[in-house]
Structure formats: C-alpha cells, structure tokens
Amino acid sequence: WFQMGFAQYMQGKSKEALASFESANPYVQEKDSWYVQLYALMGDAYHALGNYRDSDMSFEKVLTKSPEEEHVLNNYSYYLSLRKEKLDKASKMAKMLTDKFPKNGTYLDTYAWVLYQQKDYTKALQYLELALKDEKQNSSTVWEHYGDILFRLGKSEEAVKAWEKAKSLEGASPNLFKKIEKRQIIEN
C-alpha cells in the first residue's frame, strides 16, 4: 500500500495516494523505517487536497519521531506560510534548515517566504538573494517570490523584471501575468 501510494503521489494523484497511504497506516509502527516517509507523504497529500488539519497532524507525527526531518521541516513551514498560520513555528522550522544547509536554494526560499509573510521584507530579501545563487534550485516560484519582496520594498521596476523572469520559467503562476500587467502584487 505504501509503495502504491508513493507511485500515485509521484504521478500527482493525491486522492488515490492518500487512500493507499491510509490503507498502509494500520500496518506501520513507529519503529518501522518507513513510518517517517509514510506520514511525511500523507502530510503532503492531505495538504494537496486542502485538508490542512490532517496534513499538520501527519507532519507533527513525523517531527515527534524525527525532529530534524528535512522534507517535513521545509514543506510544513512553507505550507504554514502559504496559509499565513503559525508563522513563528514556521520560521523556527525553516531557520533550522537554513542554518544546517546555508546554500540550499529551496530551503532559503522557504525561509524567505516565511519572513515575507511576517512582513520582514529586508531579511526576506537577504535570504531570497542567497536562494538565487543556487541556480539549480531557481524556479518560477523563487523568482516570483523575489519580485514580491522587491515590490514590498518599493523597488517596483526591479520587481517587474523578476516577475518577467518568473514568467519565462516553467510552472509560472497565473497571477504573474496580472502582476506584470498591473505592476502590483496580486494575492492568491
């Protein structure tokens, strides 16, 4: 069930994956090597389906057993920042990752986005600029975040350039086009 759920999740079939994970759940014990993986993926699948309560509970199970689990620290803190909830908790988790991996663009972007949600735009910019140095992690999302931070700091021309760059990359959000056209932040 776990393996099937993993394959379904990797195919973007969160609902089916969750059904498989829930079928695997009665067979896993906390001592099992796949316990952390199961609950981490359940947290992601629940989040993808908008079930934030169960997503958070799954992530908390992982962190109780493995408090430094990178995948969960990153995704959980990012998901909280998107929801603008428990930002102090999100900040602590994301900061833990950037302290341990100071050159990982994904983790730096997550921490920058948490700081952005906390309205600490200057510090967010510092971390986002570090994230952009990790070229293999540069994505449309990272460049969009960079533009948003620049905009909040009153650098609208630079923000539009960052949004243009984000638009040119795979996975650009629909809001990017509106941001560029209106030259302002468009909230999701």
What does this structure look like?
- The protein is mainly alpha-helical and 188 residues long.
- It is built from 11 helices and no strands.
- It has helices spanning 2-10, 14-24, 35-48, 52-65, 70-83, 87-100, 105-117, 121-132, 140-152, 156-168, 174-182.
In short:
The chain is mainly α. The protein is 72% helix and 0% strand.
Topology summary:
Layout: H1 2-10, H2 14-24, H3 35-48, H4 52-65, H5 70-83, H6 87-100, H7 105-117, H8 121-132, H9 140-152, H10 156-168, H11 174-182
Helix pairs in contact: 1-2, 2-3, 3-4, 3-5, 5-6, 5-7, 6-7, 7-8, 8-9, 9-10, 10-11
List keywords for this structure.
single chain, 188 residues, 11 helices, 72% helix, globular
